[in-house]
């Protein structure tokens, strides 16, 4: 069988790597892929991003199944288009992807269906937005309504920051259409976790739990990033917490989408904030897998991913039970100098160790230029280590990290630290 993975990040490398392990898979195409997917003999990059051209490629190559990584093609309707042409694809329709592509849609949906989330209001008028900020006080959170590549959220600790964020989004149009409306919401304190499930429209299959590290520097200091590392499982999600999140958040979301006439198919990612008393609330939905959460999660998945995907697109996910490596996986992101604002590109990358049962390195912002591997994006690599405890997994990951070099390489040295406190 031939499979297509759409995207170019570490998430897509991990998905393609896992799919390629299936005995029934002959080739995994990655569109457009990266330096790592270019180097792997079982994977093949294709340089197509236009959705109609992709569909035509899938038809001409007789690709059996397409898995979509990032939110942009999903919000652009790749699933609608592929389905209309009779092609098997795993992901949400454009309509269902609104859970991520419109914060206002997601918040109104959660309110309507009684799903716990921060109190909020939506604004397109600058004056009313400023007045609401003043009425609520700081800390307060300002979010661009649309997709903003992870940059559309400002957690304002002071009123000044909050007013500035309102002006940037609504008055200065920093995010274009994506910021023409903003959601202003209550600041939630607590510990975050990533709760990701697969859904076929009706049946829900939870993946292993994980936790991201959004801040650039150790101990969660510095600016927000796309994610500097992740580990799985996340001990904060105890079996009792897992059951509660399913009951209060995931099940009502899938049922609510069904009821609203927009059945959800694909990966559903609930970003959770769990307060000190142990109450989970939904910070956001993503309609895709997390990056870098996917990397440690795929490193732990033992079940054949192709079989799972087939059930997912055929509406029979209830027939699947996932088997996980009992070890912990810690994934450390190696980022380029200047990340997240203005990453430096074009530096030569050396020393990536060969895959072992204890460690695997997934590529993200890398390119294969005339046989040389160079940096080509902000998050360059994600180095995953596996071990019987978080500490042992960290040791594996950082031993591999120590072998890798590129100019200006920056990474956190504490991935997994919150897990060590539980
Ligand atoms: P989002 O894209 O909505 O997940 O926001 C990005 C990050 O901003 C989250 O991972 C949180 O760290 C933070 N954040 C978002 N909403 C809130 C909130 N209501 N209270 C506190 N932090 C938040
Ligand atoms: N790791 C956070 C995200 O994928 O949105």
From TrEMBL:
Its EC number is 6.3.4.13. Signal peptide: none annotated. Keywords: ATP-binding, Ligase, Magnesium, Manganese, Metal-binding, Nucleotide-binding, Purine biosynthesis. One of its GO terms (biological process) is purine nucleobase biosynthetic process. It catalyses: 5-phospho-beta-D-ribosylamine + glycine + ATP = N(1)-(5-phospho-beta-D-ribosyl)glycinamide + ADP + phosphate + H(+). SMART domains: GARS_A, GARS_C. Its cofactor is Mn(2+); Mg(2+). This is Phosphoribosylamine--glycine ligase. Belongs to the GARS family. GO terms for molecular function: ATP binding; metal ion binding; phosphoribosylamine-glycine ligase activity. PROSITE patterns: ATP_GRASP (PS50975). HAMAP family: GARS.
């Amino acid at each position: 069988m031939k499979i297509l993975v759409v995207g170019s990040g570490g998430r897509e490398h991990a998905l393609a790597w896992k799919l390629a392990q299936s005995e029934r898979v002959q080739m995994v195409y990655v569109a457009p892929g990266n330096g790592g997917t270019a180097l792997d003999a079982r994977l093949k990059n294709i340089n197509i991003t236009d959705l109609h051209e992709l569909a035509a490629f899938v038809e001409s190559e007789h690709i059996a199944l397409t898995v979509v990584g990032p939110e942009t093609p999903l919000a652009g309707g790749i699933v609608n288009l592929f389905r209309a042409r009779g092609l098997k694809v795993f992901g949400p329709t454009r309509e269902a992807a609104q859970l991520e592509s419109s914060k206002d849609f997601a918040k109104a949906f959660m309110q309507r269906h009684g799903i716990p989330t921060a109190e909020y209001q939506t604004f397109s008028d600058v004056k009313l937005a400023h007045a609401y900020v003043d009425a609520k006080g700081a800390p307060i959170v300002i979010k661009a309504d649309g997709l903003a590549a992870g940059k559309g959220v400002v957690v304002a600790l002071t009123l000044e920051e909050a007013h500035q964020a309102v002006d940037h989004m609504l008055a200065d149009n920093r995010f274009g259409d994506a910021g023409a409306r903003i959601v202003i919401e209550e600041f939630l304190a607590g510990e975050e976790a990533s709760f990701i499930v697969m859904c076929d429209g009706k049946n829900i299959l939870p993946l292993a739990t994980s936790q991201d590290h959004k801040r650039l520097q150790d101990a969660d200091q510095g600016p927000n990033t796309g994610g500097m590392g992740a580990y799985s499982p996340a001990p904060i999600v105890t079996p009792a917490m897992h059951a509660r999140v399913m009951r209060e958040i995931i099940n009502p979301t899938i049922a609510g989408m069904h009821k609203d006439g927009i059945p959800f198919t694909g990966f559903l990612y609930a970003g959770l904030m769990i307060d000190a008393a142990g109450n989970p609330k939904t910070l956001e939905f993503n309609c895709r897998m997390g990056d870098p959460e996917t990397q440690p999660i795929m490193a732990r998945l033992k079940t054949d991913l192709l079989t799972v995907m087939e059930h997912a697109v055929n509406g029979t996910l209830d027939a699947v039970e996932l088997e996980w490596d009992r070890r912990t996986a810690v994934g450390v992101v190696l980022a380029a100098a200047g990340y997240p604002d203005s990453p430096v590109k074009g530096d030569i990358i050396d020393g990536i160790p060969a895959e072992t049962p204890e460690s695997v390195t997934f590529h993200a912002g890398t390119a294969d230029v005339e046989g040389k591997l160079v940096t080509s994006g902000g998050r360059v690599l994600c180095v995953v280590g596996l071990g019987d405890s978080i500490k042992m997994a960290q040791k594996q990951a950082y031993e591999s990290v120590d072998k890798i070099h590129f100019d200006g390489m920056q990474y956190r040295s504490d991935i997994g630290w919150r897990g060590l406190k539980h």
